[in-house]
Write a structure and sequence with these properties.
The longest helix has 20 residues. The N and C termini lie far apart (about 55 Å). This protein is an alpha+beta fold. Helix 2 packs across helix 5, helix 2 packs across helix 7 and helix 5 packs antiparallel against helix 6. It has a 9-stranded mixed β-sheet, sandwiched between helices. The structure holds adenosine-3'-5'-diphosphate (A3P) and magnesium ion (2 copies). The site of one magnesium ion (MG) has 2 residues, from loops.
Length: about 375
């Protein structure tokens, strides 16, 4: 008979007709060769303005303006008097992406005409949700909830805020709130609205504004369509998207070997995952002191990050991240069989646990809006 007692299995609890009930997140199960990940292709973009209105264009795209090596930017400037913060209590789900799909569906359908399903992709989601999947085998602090619905042959994946995340969000300290602003202020110091413009360092920081790229790619046998916010692009108009895009980050200055090691082990994992997915090739990082003064600016090329971390003991591996994501998507495909926009399979994960799921029919978890479903069906 079968002996599973000492055998490590990725997913288990199989019952006829072989629908696994859980998925393991143990790293060693995903240490195999790097899966196929096709070069992401930009199929479109959209903008969200200062009031979070959707536009099917690139009006919010900004241009990178190189700062000096040690620019002395003060990230605290404007926090109290020139900051408009997006309301994080408003849950937008996939709505902006769905709006983009509706306005560009003929373009998409002609591109993927050989496919049987309406959009020609297996999954539609946000880049940020995929980033969380990539980092899951190494995450020890925060779990996640991902809702999935199949409609027109495509599985849509939308995040649900966990109770723990809501409690954290509602109990941030004043210091933490200010430090979250610092990342956006750094963007303002080095981004211009126009190709030949200069940064408006005295302007208002409004975190409702966003430019998002929409890319198509394939991970193993999973065709993916996802969107992610992009901070800015290179001024050189000859560089095509997404290679022209630049991710901006801030981080505490590194003063000790221990801090350098932590930066490599934890922060570079998240930075790598976020930019690798849409094919953004470089990150400009501002290192700041305790008072929010940027003391150094450094460039990280995504393709070099795996080399940078190789000397860290017991460090994260890109192949584990990608293989876990691929296996999770296979797991979702094996579970979500019924094509029904009102049916939600809720996948949940807590650190040190397996990924589990529950089934919800016509509940508050239903996330594909009627305006989308009705318009796609007509
Ligand atoms: P830093 O990246 O400099 O930390 P992004 O880097 O993804 O473009 O995001 C811009 C800023 O938004 C971040 O600046 C950070 O302050 C804030 N931010 C990003 N993701 C966040 C999250 N999950 N929770 C809270 N704040 C976040
Ligand atoms: Mg950003
Ligand atoms: Mg950024």
């Amino acid at each position: 008979g079968d002996c599973y007692a000492h055998k490590r299995v990725r997913s288990g609890g199989e019952t006829f007709p072989s629908v696994p009930r859980f998925l393991s997140t143990q790293r060693q199960l995903y240490e195999r060769s790097f899966p196929v990940y096709k070069q992401p292709v930009e199929v479109g973009f959209f903008s969200l303005d200062s009031e979070r209105n959707f536009f099917n264009d690139s009006r919010q795209l900004r241009y990178y303006v190189e700062p000096g090596k040690s620019p002395n930017f003060s990230l605290r400037d404007g926090y109290h008097d020139r900051f408009i913060k997006r309301d994080e209590g408003v849950k937008e789900g996939l709505d902006h992406m769905l709006r983009w799909i509706l306005e560009n569906r003929t373009k998409l359908q002609s591109k993927n005409s050989a496919s049987s399903c309406a959009l020609g992709v297996d999954f539609v989601t946000w880049r940020g949700h995929l980033t969380k999947l990539l980092t899951t085998p190494y995450e020890t602090q925060e779990g996640w909830l991902l809702a999935a619905s199949k409609f027109g042959g495509t599985i849509y994946i939308s995040e649900v805020e966990t109770e723990a995340a809501r409690v954290n969000r509602e109990s941030r300290t004043e210091r933490h709130k200010e430090m979250m602003y610092w990342g956006f202020k750094f963007e303002q110091y080095i981004c211009a609205d126009d190709m030949n413009g200069v940064p408006d360092q005295g302007g208002v920081v409004n975190t409702n504004e966003a430019f998002c790229t929409v890319v198509q790619t394939r991970l193993s046998d999973h065709k993916l369509l996802f969107s992610g916010e992009v901070d800015c692009r290179d001024k050189d108009p000859r560089i095509p998207a997404p290679a022209c895009y630049i991710e901006l980050k801030t981080s505490a200055e590194i003063c000790t070997p221990k801090q350098r090691s932590n930066f490599h082990r934890y922060k570079l994992l998240k930075w790598w995952a976020q930019s690798f997915l849409p094919g953004v090739p470089q990150i400009i990082a501002g290192f700041r002191d305790q008072d929010g003064i940027v003391v150094a600016v450094e460039t990280f090329h995504i393709s070099n990050i795996s080399q940078l971390i190789k000397n860290e003991y017991n460090c994260w591996k890109p192949t584990v991240c990608m293989n876990f994501c691929s296996d999770f998507l296979s797991f979702v495909k094996s579970v979500v069989k019924e094509d029904n926009p009102r049916l939600v399979h809720l996948f949940e994960w807590e650190p040190h646990r397996d990924v589990m799921f529950s089934v919800h029919r016509d509940t508050q978890y239903t996330f594909l809006p009627d305006w989308y479903v009705n318009s796609m069906e007509s």
